[in-house]
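Submission checklist for the structure archive. All mandatory fields must be present; incomplete records are returned to the submitter.

[x] Identifier: DNA ligase (ATP)
[x] Organism: Paragemmobacter ruber
[x] Residue count: 540
[x] Sequence attached
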Amino acid sequence: MKAFAALFTALDGTTKTSAKLAALTEYFRTAPEADRIWTIALLSGRRPKRSVSATELRAWAAEAAGLPLWLFEESYAMVGDLAETIALILPPAEARVEVSLSEMIAALIALTGQPEAQRRAAILRHWGQLGATERLLFNKLITGGYRMGVSQGLMTRALAMATGVEEAVLAHRLMGDWSPQEMRFEMLVRADAGGPDSRPYPFALAAPLEEGPDSLGDPGGWRAEWKWDGIRGQLIQRAGAFALWSRGEELITDRFPEFAPLADFLPHGTVLDGEVVAWDGAWDGTSDGAAGRPLPFADLQKRIGRKTVPRKLLAEAPALMLAYDLLEEAGQDLREHPFDARRARLEALVARLPEGLPLRLSPAIAFDDWASLAATRATARERLAEGVMLKRATSPYHVGRKRGDWWKWKLDPWTVDAVMIYAQAGHGRRANLYTDFTFAVRDGNALVPFTKAYSGLTDAEFAEITRWVQKNTLERFGPVRRVPPELVFEIGFEGIQESPRHKSGIALRFPRMIRWRRDKPVDEIDTLEGLRGLLRAAQA
């Protein structure tokens, strides 16, 4: 763990991208091969399966430190991070033992399914053999709480510098379903693995267009389409491999069995980028959607997390893919071709397919000037779209988010004014600040909680609210603080749906704090009936 701990310390001690890049590059050049693989896995979101629960860790750590459990819980509430709390309260290591990152992860994986006494003994032994930083990282391996301030793009750039392999090639090889327990470093960064290749390409992402498109110049150089509210995915048909991948690199082929017929008709060597949506009724491919319309995202969300999809759900919310880009045709990578050229080839490909398949073109939006596009965009919510996408006609399909070629011009969010009633400390660098809030609206004389939010304010505002929470706490429920209903905030959100699991009967999509309404008293916040009115409007 020594080399990995040194890397963690270097990354945690700087905000400079150049310094982080240098530390990562040197690590990928010199660390043991198995450690490099696991570091890539951890930084790209792949975690070893948990073998110990948080409840067990708290009890064992309190026992090892000679603390009553209530005092450990109070310490945890103040620190805000379980791994860090444990590392801080434990006594110094009795006898340091050097062990590699990969060996430590293998030992943790081996504990899966073992009796509690055996797992407890192993965890206590490791705690007693590790230095302070190594112990913190060991705890984070168990809890899965790694936040090292390194993006996937920065990690890929460091790998490219360390290995001499092109960054775009590495980004593609790091996509898909690979296991750090089975993958060798040489296979991952220097050669394609054998067998059918179902890996997606790195997704091209759009930057938000905040001020409107006037600054983009001549509208003739841009193409527009709807920004659908579904699951972004790549549909892959290669020899021996048919797969649907989400943007989060999750293989979701089995969640959409209605896509299976596409394997019989899409030519081998085809990769499509598009949006998976639930669709109501037939669709004629026109931009007005007169013959059908997408269903709310909530209908599609019911499939997420399921291993099998029941027939009833398939009938109620049939899915289709709205394709808006062709990344590979006949095995040829088209990503460097201009968008207009890729779109023309996509249209020709879809036109050759028989009718009745769950694949359609995402319709292009015709517009003569920015004003006419703005008028069209204003109707997006009626079509259950989030706004429009703007893509430069000459743009390649780039890796990640590259400002300038692709923009998402979303509708302004729905907003309500609500009062904060609970506060909880954040995690990582916000562990000492109250940043996670529960909000309520009025229902007669009562306050009904309806959503939580933790983003949208400045660090200075979070610090001010933290001081207020510390002075005004009414009750404590573990890490949660009940506070007087006095602070009013404007809450923005992208969608609203019914939810029997919530007391309010309502759930919001992507809630966040737009601003702190210091000018508004609590008796002027919005009402539950007002939220229900928004729900009715969304369902109309």
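[x] Structure attached
Curator remark: The domain at 414-539 is CATH 2.40.50.140 (OB fold (Dihydrolipoamide Acetyltransferase, E2P)). The CA atoms of residues 27 and 473 lie 46 Å apart.
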